[in-house]
Amino acid sequence: MQGRGRRTAMAACVALAVGYLGTAGYAALLIFFRALVVTDALTPAAPEAAAEENGLMTFVFAWVGAFYLGELLLAIALWRAGSDVIARWVPLALLGHVVSLVFVAGPSWVGQVAVVLVALPLCGLAIRVAQR
Question: Which burial class, exposed, middle or buried, applies to 91 when counting CB atoms under 10 A from its CB (0-12, 13-18, 19+)?
Answer without folding.
Answer: buried
